Every structure is written in structure tokens, then in C-alpha cells.
């Protein structure tokens, strides 16, 4: 039997599958990793936490683990902070951070597709898929390494 991807967080009562808050307890920043994207979006939507707090928590976690993994190629922290500050809570995932491999086409974000030949390649347009992720409110936080040409 497969485990459920959505569970009620025992301390905060967020049921990510149902999208319902079962208690008014605030989420401690140290425990955000127990939430999936739907759970984080619910915390933000119900103002239990701000998009900026979620972004800063994700940045701290990336900075703590990346020296061991060496997985993050390009950090888009400043861009993420700006988007979090301007977050509009109408997208389904407003304020939720996400990572995408270094094969994304996002305006203003370097994309090498894992090749030194594309070092310095900064697209001036955003591909439709990534425009849709941003319209849903997701906030790009970093680009991890990908194999050459994606």
C-alpha cells in the first residue's frame, strides 16, 4: 500500500489534501519541511506565515546542505525575495518556493543546460511552462545542476 502524499500535520492541523486548516496554531519556521507545496500555500493563504518567511527558510536550508551536496548552480535568492515581497495571494501556490533544474528558460535567469558552452546565456523570454508556474504563484529559488543539455 502506498503512503498518502497528504497528511494532517499533527501540530498545526493543516490537511493539505483538503486544503483546510483544522487549528489556528502558527507554524514554527523550523518545521516547514514537513509541509508539501499545498500545505505551505495554505499556511500563506491563511496568513500563518508570510511568503518571505518561507523563502528565507528555504534559503537557510539550501545554504546549510549545499556545501555537502554541491547541487545548486545558480542562486536566484534576490529574485525570489523580490517576488515574495510582491506576492499576490491569488495563485494556487502563491509564495511557495520551488527549484528547477538548470534547463529552464526564464527571462533574466542564466540557463546553461549543464554545458559550459552556454555560460552567460540569459534568456530574454520565459517559456510558457515557467510562466504558468509563476502565474500559479510559485517562486523560483535556485537552479540545481543538470546533466549536459538537460
Quick description:
With 150 residues, the protein is of the alpha+beta class. The chain is built from four helices and five strands, in the order ββααβαβαβ.
What does it look like?
The chain has 150 residues and is α+β, with helices and mostly antiparallel strands. The protein has 2 domains: 1-49, no CATH class; 50-150, no CATH class. 30% of the residues lie in helices and 11% in strands. It has 4 helices and 5 strands, in the order ββααβαβαβ. It has helices at residues 37-45, 51-69, 77-85, 128-135; strands at residues 14-15, 20-21, 72-75, 97-99, 139-144. A 3-stranded mixed β-sheet has the order 3-5-4. Helix 4 links the parallel strand 4 and strand 5 (139-144). Helix 2 packs antiparallel against helix 3 (77-85). The longest helix is centred in the middle third of the chain and has 19 residues, at 51-69. It is globular. It starts with 13 loop residues before the first strand and ends in a 6-residue tail after the last strand. Residues 1-25 have low confidence and may be disordered.
Describe the protein's topology.
Elements (H helix, E strand, L loop, with lengths): L13 E2 L4 E2 L15 H9 L5 H19 L2 E4 L1 H9 L11 E3 L28 H8 L3 E6 L6
Helix pairs in contact: 2-3
**Count of DSSP-assigned helices:** 4
What is the chain-wise order of helices and strands?
EEHHEHEHE
Q: In order across it, which strands form the biggest sheet?
A: 3-5-4
Compute the number of strand runs.
5
Q: Sheet with the most strands? A: 3 strands, mixed
- Morphology: globular
Count the domains: 2
Q: Please, what is the average pLDDT?
A: 78
Low-confidence stretches: 1-25
> Measured on Cα atoms, how large is the radius of gyration?
16 Å
Structural class: alpha+beta
Strand content: 5-15%
Approximate helicity band: 25-40%
Distance between the termini: 33 Å
Amino acid at each position: 500500500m502506498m503512503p498518502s502524499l497528504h497528511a494532517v500535520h499533527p501540530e498545526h492541523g493543516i490537511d493539505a489534501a483538503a486544503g483546510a486548516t483544522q487549528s489556528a496554531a502558527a507554524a514554527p519556521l523550523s518545521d516547514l519541511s514537513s509541509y508539501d507545496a499545498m500545505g505551505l500555500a495554505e499556511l500563506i493563504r491563511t496568513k500563518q506565515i508570510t511568503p518571505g518567511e518561507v523563502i528565507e527558510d528555504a534559503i537557510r536550508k539550501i545554504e546549510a546542505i549545499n556545501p555537502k551536496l554541491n547541487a545548486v548552480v545558480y542562486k536566484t535568492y534576490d529574485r525570489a525575495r523580490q517576488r515574495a515581497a510582491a506576492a499576490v495571494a491569488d495563485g494556487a501556490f502563491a509564495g511557495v518556493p520551488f527549484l528547477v533544474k538548470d534547463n529552464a528558460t526564464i527571462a533574466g535567469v542564466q540557463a546553461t543546460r549543464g554545458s559550459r558552452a552556454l555560460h552567460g546565456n540569459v534568456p530574454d523570454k520565459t517559456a510558457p511552462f515557467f510562466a504558468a508556474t509563476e502565474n500559479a504563484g510559485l517562486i523560483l529559488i535556485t537552479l540545481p545542476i543538470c546533466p549536459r543539455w538537460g
